[in-house]
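Database export, one record per block. Field names are fixed; values are copied verbatim from the stored entry.
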Amino acid sequence: MEQSAFFWLANLPLALSVPMIIGGGIVLSLIGTYVTSSIFTDGELQSNNTVAAPKFTFIGQVYSVTLALALVGGWDIYQSARDGVQREAVALAALTVVSQVFAEPSQREIQVELRQTIQLYGQAVVTQEWKTMSRGQNAPAATHRLNRLVELYTTVKPMNAVQVTAQQNAMRLLEDLATHRMSRVSTLSHALIGLIWALVLVGAVVSISFTWFFGSPSVVVQAAMSAIIAAFIMMHLLVILKLTHPFAGETAVSPNPIKFATQ
């Protein structure tokens, strides 16, 4: 349920996710400022400034470290996903080259099927699996094409030393392909654990709500400062959300490397 909510948010267009997440934080800060200014007098709130300032500084420093760690972790997830797609595309392109070695007249049929299966695998990944990965799932069609590709390269009978070497290289490339695909479709398991998300979200609420108990001669100025801090924090949360879901939404890793490798 928790991951489903994160996937849903990550898949939202930026035109919706930006006002929803950042705007939601701003609205929360304005409501909190209004409520506290209604309950406490300006004098009571201003008397907190001296005592609360060092405490807020401490909270800000601790939370900045938490956000930094989450951002680094998110970037590592995104970068690993992008690099994995590149390596998967390289393996597919190399398998296409290897298929050309099996060019004896009696191997014509299997050579054609090898190329077609590589293309069909690429099509299944680009047109189907990229969509299912945005929900944390894989596509059965891509799995079927990969299994068929393994079967073809395993059953082809080499007719000379060059083909023997080509078949050995093909098996190594298939192992690489399967490894990179598994890493790609299992992105959900690489996401930030719920405990870290809880820490980041609780820290955001604490940091935003703490500003409500500072005082200012002008409530408007106080509300503006709280809104700016809230927007700044929520922007970071939005970036972390997008980075930790590299195959979701408008900022998703592109499937073009696989598309070009299997054309």
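Remark 1: Residues 2-261 form one domain.
Remark 2: The mean pLDDT is 89.
End of record.
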